[in-house]
């Protein structure tokens, strides 16, 4: 059915904050004309990436850093953090005053009385690219204040260290969180955006690589015909597994050194450059 597969990270690769370039949109239009399986492989939850997937006409979406796979708007598999484990992590974060979000596929839950802080962060990262009224409307559509941990399926916990969200600074950092929970959970820093410092926690064994393995086997695609492109630490397993791993120009050195090819950065239309380099368009 498909002669090869291309896995695309979203943030920092095809989208920067809320901006996607006309050249990137045209690139996807050209790729759609070929017999390629196109997959968004993102740290975002489904609700946060659904409209982008519809815009690009992509119906294979790996969400929450490999925690959930959607094909044609239907869940194929889903990993989530069990209630008793979730409660332990959340209680610890609450006691330390750390701001976080709980990513489910139908919405993103935030702590009570933190809405203004989340919006302030998003506005800062947006840098005026999206009208503030639209930005807040989108936030209200996707985010809800947490009422209870019971009966929700959380694929991933996303914590924030961004100074703009705190009076001074976050009281926990990646190293401390790793020391506390690293033996039991998959913990990855998110540092691709120079304006933000954050990280994510999910079940052990959950990664972008898991979804790559599943789809290549599901469609019986030769490993030699697999491509992936990304720009951050949570892309490493995916980029190492495929035959042709591509790092964006702004990616950390640790990401670049495991890739076959390093393309231009986001502002240089790196994803388009990469597709042309491999003669995929």
Order of helices and strands: EHEHEEEHEEHHEEHEEHEHEHEH
The count of helical stretches stands at: 10
Structural class: alpha/beta
**What would the average pLDDT be, to the nearest integer?**
93
* Low-pLDDT ranges: none
Task: Tell me the fraction of residues in β-strands, as a range.
Answer: 15-25%
Give Rg in angstroms: 18 Å
Distance between the termini: 19 Å
Descriptive keywords:
281 residues, single chain, six-stranded mixed β-sheet
3D structure, described in words:
The protein has 10 helices and 14 strands. It has helices at 22-32, 46-56, 83-96, 115-126, 132-142, 174-181, 208-218, 236-241, 253-256, 270-277; strands spanning 4-8, 36-41, 60-63, 68-71, 74-78, 99-103, 108-110, 143-145, 156-160, 185-190, 198-203, 226-230, 244-247, 261-262. The radius of gyration is 18 Å and the shape is globular. β12, α8 (236-241) and β13 (244-247) form a beta-alpha-beta unit. The longest helix has 14 residues, at 83-96. The strands form 2 sheets. The chain has an 8-stranded mixed sheet, with helices on both faces. It has a 6-stranded mixed sheet with strand order 8-7-6-9-11-10. By secondary structure, it is α/β, with parallel strands linked by helices.
Q: TL;DR?
A:
With 281 residues, this protein is α/β, with parallel strands linked by helices.
Note the topology.
Blueprint: E1 4-8, H1 22-32, E2 36-41, H2 46-56, E3 60-63, E4 68-71, E5 74-78, H3 83-96, E6 99-103, E7 108-110, H4 115-126, H5 132-142, E8 143-145, E9 156-160, H6 174-181, E10 185-190, E11 198-203, H7 208-218, E12 226-230, H8 236-241, E13 244-247, H9 253-256, E14 261-262, H10 270-277
Parallel strand pairs: 1-2, 1-12, 2-3, 7-8, 12-13, 13-14
Antiparallel strand pairs: 3-4, 4-5, 6-7, 6-9, 9-11, 10-11
């Amino acid at each position: 059915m498909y002669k090869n597969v291309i896995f695309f990270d979203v943030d920092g690769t095809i989208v920067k904050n809320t901006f996607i370039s006309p050249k990137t949109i045209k690139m996807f239009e050209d790729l759609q004309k070929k017999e390629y399986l196109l997959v968004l492989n993102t740290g975002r939850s489904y609700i946060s990436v659904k409209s982008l997937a519809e815009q690009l006409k992509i119906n294979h979406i790996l969400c929450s850093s490999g925690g959930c796979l959607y094909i044609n708007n239907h869940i194929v598999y889903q990993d989530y953090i069990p209630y008793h484990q979730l409660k332990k992590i959340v209680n610890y974060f609450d006691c330390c005053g750390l701001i976080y979000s709980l990513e489910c596929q139908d919405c993103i839950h935030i702590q009570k009385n933190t809405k203004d802080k989340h919006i302030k962060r998003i506005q800062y990262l947006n840098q005026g690219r999206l009208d503030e009224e639209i930005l807040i409307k989108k936030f209200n559509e996707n985010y809800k204040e947490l009422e209870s941990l019971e009966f929700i399926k959380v694929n991933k916990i996303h914590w924030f260290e961004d100074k703009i969200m705190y009076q001074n600074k976050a009281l926990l950092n990646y190293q401390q969180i790793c020391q506390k929970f690293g033996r039991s959970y998959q913990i990855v820093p998110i540092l691709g955006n120079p304006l933000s410092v954050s990280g994510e926690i999910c079940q052990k064994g959950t990664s972008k690589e898991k979804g790559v393995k599943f789809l290549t086997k599901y469609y019986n695609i030769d490993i030699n015909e697999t491509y992936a492109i990304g720009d951050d630490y949570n892309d490493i397993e995916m980029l190492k597994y495929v035959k042709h791993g591509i790092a964006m120009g702004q990616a950390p050195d640790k990401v670049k050194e495991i890739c076959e090819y390093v393309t231009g950065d986001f502002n240089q239309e790196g994803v388009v450059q990469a597709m042309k380099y491999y003669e995929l368009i």
